[in-house]
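Sorry to interrupt, but I need a hand with the structure work. Could you write out one complete protein record for me, on any chain you like? Could you add the entry underneath, on a fresh line?
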Amino acid sequence: MNKKTIITILLALVTMAGQGQIKCHVEGTLETEAWGDEIIICEVGTDLRVVDEPRFHVKAKDGHFTYDIETDFPRLYEVFFLKQHETGRGFTGKFIAENCSVDVTMYKDKRIHIVSNGEEGRKHAVKDSIEDVRFWNPVEVIDNQIDDESHRAEFYKADFISTVSKARSLNVSITTCRTNVQDIPTLAGS
Protein backbone atom coordinates (compact mmCIF):
# COMPACT_ATOMS: atom_id res chain seq x y z
CA MET A 1 0.00 0.00 0.00
CA ASN A 2 1.17 3.46 -0.69
CA LYS A 3 1.38 6.33 1.78
CA LYS A 4 -1.74 8.17 0.55
CA THR A 5 -3.95 5.10 0.99
CA ILE A 6 -2.74 4.50 4.56
CA ILE A 7 -3.27 8.16 5.50
CA THR A 8 -6.75 8.14 3.97
CA ILE A 9 -7.70 4.98 5.89
CA LEU A 10 -6.36 6.43 9.15
CA LEU A 11 -8.31 9.66 8.66
CA ALA A 12 -11.49 7.68 7.98
CA LEU A 13 -10.98 5.62 11.14
CA VAL A 14 -10.37 8.72 13.25
CA THR A 15 -13.49 10.36 11.82
CA MET A 16 -15.68 7.32 12.46
CA ALA A 17 -14.30 6.86 15.99
CA GLY A 18 -15.14 10.47 16.87
CA GLN A 19 -18.81 10.32 15.87
CA GLY A 20 -21.57 9.59 18.36
CA GLN A 21 -19.36 9.49 21.43
CA ILE A 22 -22.12 10.82 23.66
CA LYS A 23 -25.19 8.69 24.24
CA CYS A 24 -28.10 10.08 26.23
CA HIS A 25 -31.15 7.99 27.11
CA VAL A 26 -34.38 9.91 27.77
CA GLU A 27 -37.36 8.32 29.53
CA GLY A 28 -40.58 10.22 30.01
CA THR A 29 -43.94 10.00 31.71
CA LEU A 30 -47.07 11.88 30.70
CA GLU A 31 -49.22 12.87 33.66
CA THR A 32 -51.97 14.10 31.34
CA GLU A 33 -53.65 13.10 28.10
CA ALA A 34 -54.98 16.62 27.51
CA TRP A 35 -52.22 17.47 25.01
CA GLY A 36 -52.14 14.16 23.18
CA ASP A 37 -49.37 11.62 23.05
CA GLU A 38 -46.93 13.19 20.58
CA ILE A 39 -43.80 14.74 22.05
CA ILE A 40 -41.10 16.80 20.36
CA ILE A 41 -37.47 16.43 21.43
CA CYS A 42 -34.97 18.60 19.53
CA GLU A 43 -32.00 20.88 20.01
CA VAL A 44 -32.79 24.27 21.47
CA GLY A 45 -33.19 26.81 18.69
CA THR A 46 -34.56 24.35 16.12
CA ASP A 47 -37.20 26.11 14.06
CA LEU A 48 -39.82 23.42 13.43
CA ARG A 49 -41.40 25.54 10.70
CA VAL A 50 -38.24 25.05 8.66
CA VAL A 51 -36.71 21.80 9.95
CA ASP A 52 -39.47 19.45 11.07
CA GLU A 53 -37.88 16.04 10.83
CA PRO A 54 -39.62 12.80 11.86
CA ARG A 55 -36.76 12.02 14.26
CA PHE A 56 -37.92 14.90 16.49
CA HIS A 57 -41.38 13.33 16.96
CA VAL A 58 -41.80 10.77 19.73
CA LYS A 59 -45.04 8.88 20.34
CA ALA A 60 -45.90 8.01 23.92
CA LYS A 61 -47.41 4.60 24.58
CA ASP A 62 -49.51 4.11 27.71
CA GLY A 63 -48.25 7.43 29.06
CA HIS A 64 -44.54 6.63 28.63
CA PHE A 65 -41.91 7.34 26.01
CA THR A 66 -38.20 6.72 25.44
CA TYR A 67 -35.73 8.45 23.16
CA ASP A 68 -32.02 7.93 22.54
CA ILE A 69 -29.71 10.74 21.49
CA GLU A 70 -26.26 10.24 19.99
CA THR A 71 -24.15 13.33 19.49
CA ASP A 72 -20.51 14.29 19.22
CA PHE A 73 -20.50 16.75 22.14
CA PRO A 74 -22.95 17.83 24.88
CA ARG A 75 -25.86 19.85 23.50
CA LEU A 76 -28.88 21.55 24.99
CA TYR A 77 -32.18 19.87 24.04
CA GLU A 78 -35.78 20.77 24.72
CA VAL A 79 -38.90 18.66 25.11
CA PHE A 80 -42.56 19.70 24.75
CA PHE A 81 -45.99 18.52 23.64
CA LEU A 82 -46.58 18.90 19.88
CA LYS A 83 -50.13 20.22 20.41
CA GLN A 84 -48.90 22.86 22.85
CA HIS A 85 -46.35 23.98 20.28
CA GLU A 86 -49.00 24.17 17.55
CA THR A 87 -51.25 26.34 19.72
CA GLY A 88 -48.42 28.54 20.95
CA ARG A 89 -49.03 27.62 24.58
CA GLY A 90 -47.47 25.37 27.11
CA PHE A 91 -44.25 24.59 28.80
CA THR A 92 -40.85 23.57 27.50
CA GLY A 93 -38.34 21.51 29.44
CA LYS A 94 -34.62 21.74 28.73
CA PHE A 95 -31.84 19.27 29.40
CA ILE A 96 -28.23 18.71 28.37
CA ALA A 97 -27.59 15.60 26.30
CA GLU A 98 -24.47 14.03 27.74
CA ASN A 99 -23.49 10.48 28.73
CA CYS A 100 -26.38 10.06 31.12
CA SER A 101 -30.02 9.19 31.62
CA VAL A 102 -32.71 11.86 31.72
CA ASP A 103 -36.13 11.40 33.33
CA VAL A 104 -38.90 13.69 32.09
CA THR A 105 -42.35 14.16 33.64
CA MET A 106 -44.86 16.22 31.67
CA TYR A 107 -48.01 17.82 33.11
CA LYS A 108 -51.07 19.60 31.76
CA ASP A 109 -50.68 22.98 33.50
CA LYS A 110 -47.26 22.85 35.16
CA ARG A 111 -43.68 23.18 34.01
CA ILE A 112 -41.98 20.01 32.83
CA HIS A 113 -39.96 18.27 35.52
CA ILE A 114 -36.55 16.99 34.35
CA VAL A 115 -34.00 14.99 36.33
CA SER A 116 -30.62 14.23 34.78
CA ASN A 117 -27.90 12.08 36.33
CA GLY A 118 -25.16 13.75 34.26
CA GLU A 119 -22.73 16.24 35.80
CA GLU A 120 -23.62 19.12 33.46
CA GLY A 121 -27.32 18.28 33.80
CA ARG A 122 -27.11 18.64 37.58
CA LYS A 123 -25.36 22.00 37.20
CA HIS A 124 -28.09 23.09 34.78
CA ALA A 125 -30.75 22.04 37.30
CA VAL A 126 -29.10 24.13 40.04
CA LYS A 127 -29.02 27.15 37.71
CA ASP A 128 -32.71 26.62 36.87
CA SER A 129 -33.69 26.39 40.53
CA ILE A 130 -31.89 29.66 41.26
CA GLU A 131 -33.72 31.28 38.33
CA ASP A 132 -37.02 29.91 39.68
CA VAL A 133 -36.49 31.59 43.02
CA ARG A 134 -35.32 34.89 41.51
CA PHE A 135 -37.67 35.21 38.55
CA TRP A 136 -40.53 32.68 38.33
CA ASN A 137 -41.88 33.07 41.85
CA PRO A 138 -42.41 36.86 41.51
CA VAL A 139 -43.90 36.37 38.03
CA GLU A 140 -46.33 33.74 39.35
CA VAL A 141 -47.45 36.17 42.07
CA ILE A 142 -48.19 38.82 39.44
CA ASP A 143 -49.97 36.27 37.22
CA ASN A 144 -52.20 35.24 40.13
CA GLN A 145 -53.02 38.89 40.83
CA ILE A 146 -53.88 39.53 37.18
CA ASP A 147 -56.29 36.58 37.24
CA ASP A 148 -58.04 38.07 40.28
CA GLU A 149 -60.79 40.48 39.13
CA SER A 150 -60.14 42.88 42.01
CA HIS A 151 -56.49 43.43 41.00
CA ARG A 152 -56.93 43.83 37.23
CA ALA A 153 -57.22 47.61 37.44
CA GLU A 154 -53.67 47.72 38.83
CA PHE A 155 -52.28 46.12 35.68
CA TYR A 156 -54.59 47.16 32.82
CA LYS A 157 -56.06 50.46 31.69
CA ALA A 158 -59.81 50.93 32.09
CA ASP A 159 -60.32 51.16 28.29
CA PHE A 160 -58.72 47.76 27.82
CA ILE A 161 -60.81 46.14 30.57
CA SER A 162 -64.06 47.54 29.13
CA THR A 163 -63.14 46.40 25.60
CA VAL A 164 -62.38 42.89 26.82
CA SER A 165 -65.62 42.71 28.80
CA LYS A 166 -67.63 43.92 25.75
CA ALA A 167 -65.97 41.31 23.56
CA ARG A 168 -66.74 38.59 26.09
CA SER A 169 -70.35 39.74 26.40
CA LEU A 170 -70.73 39.43 22.63
CA ASN A 171 -69.24 35.96 22.89
CA VAL A 172 -66.57 36.91 20.37
CA SER A 173 -63.12 35.50 20.69
CA ILE A 174 -60.63 38.23 19.85
CA THR A 175 -57.99 35.73 18.76
CA THR A 176 -60.23 33.96 16.22
CA CYS A 177 -61.77 36.99 14.53
CA ARG A 178 -60.55 37.06 10.96
CA THR A 179 -61.50 39.19 8.04
CA ASN A 180 -61.80 37.73 4.59
CA VAL A 181 -59.68 40.02 2.42
CA GLN A 182 -61.79 39.30 -0.65
CA ASP A 183 -64.89 40.80 1.00
CA ILE A 184 -63.25 44.17 1.60
CA PRO A 185 -64.04 46.65 -1.20
CA THR A 186 -61.09 48.55 -2.59
CA LEU A 187 -60.84 52.32 -2.42
CA ALA A 188 -61.08 52.59 -6.22
CA GLY A 189 -64.55 51.04 -6.11
CA SER A 190 -63.69 47.98 -8.21
